[in-house]
Amino acid sequence: MSLDTTPALTPVDEARRQVEICNACRYCEGYCAVFPSAFSQRAFSDGDITQLANLCHNCRGCYYACQYTEPHEFALNLPAALAEVRVESWERYAWPKGFARLFQESGVALAGALVVGIALLFFALTALTPEAGEGFYAYLSHGAMVAIFTPAFLLPLVAVGIGLHRYWRDVDGRPITFAHLKSAFQDAARLKNLSGGAANGCNFEDGDRYSQARRHAHHAVMYGFLLCFASTSSGTVLHYGFGMEAPYSLFSLPKLLGVPGGILLTIGATYLVWLKTKADPDLGAASVWGGEMAFVLLLGATGATGLALYAATGTSWVAPLLAIHLGTVLAFFVTTPYSKMVHGFYRLAALIRDAQRPSGAV
């Protein structure tokens, strides 16, 4: 009896095998940006496959349209193949590299980071209680918040920047022009690649049925997050630029941005959690399902705890809710380079790189 000793393909090699078959078939030419980009080439380097993987939004429409999925001998599952490469690329580019696999595979690690963040902030609340202050600052001084969150915000951005530099080098990125940025940001703002080839939506949560649900949930999360970030930024400007310190009234700019942002973020993340439970795990990177779910839950908790904290203003609940909210935010920031949050940075970079492809190359 003979044994098959053929070595298993690496994720990149398996994705390359499948992309080459797709390149010969071209049935999915009108689908997302992955296919025009792939069909503009005849040979695919490892960097090319990494670029295609980060262009993919895992909408899964191509899988349900494909005639070469199992039981066909080609056994195509392009969404899963690209998802494996995508996750592998995030781990490879991550800095420090040792944290990447831990955060991608283990939702427990994310939960642990949240618990540690809350515990540290509870300690800060007892050790750094200010002598005077209003609102949140009656429990944790402005200086203490700045001391805790400035490095927690900036250091992860440095780590992401190092990863993006490595990515750009591997995908042979060119000098970036305003036109490239405009094209990429327009696609990102509309979540164009989640609209499906005929703008009917994708097939993420319900097999071969088209749906815009995932796109709408992503829009809620994305714009909710941006509104919350804008709220914090406006509060910083008011504090340092105009000497106007928190707490702010309901009709102030920080609240007018932050409250709708928190609502959108919470609803969108909750919807994404529900959709993920409906989706087929075999069409994604199944090994990191728990880590991805933990990230979405952490994202939603950031919005929900912020809203709860605002609702508790003037009550005895402010102190514990402040610690929980700040702990959640701290855990979110610290895990950004290693959780699925980093996908936003890489997909934007992939869109910019795709915008550099000659318009006639299809």
From TrEMBL:
Protein name (database record): Citrate/tricarballylate utilization protein
Membrane-spanning residues: 107-128, 140-164, 220-242, 254-274, 286-311, 317-338
| Keyword Transcription tagged | no
Supply the InterPro entries for this chain: Citrate_utilization_prot_B (IPR012830), NarG-like_sf (IPR036197)
Q: Tell me if Hydrolase is a UniProt keyword of this record.
A: no
Alphabetized, the UniProt keywords read: Membrane, Transmembrane, Transmembrane helix
Give the source's domain of life in one word.
Answer: Bacteria
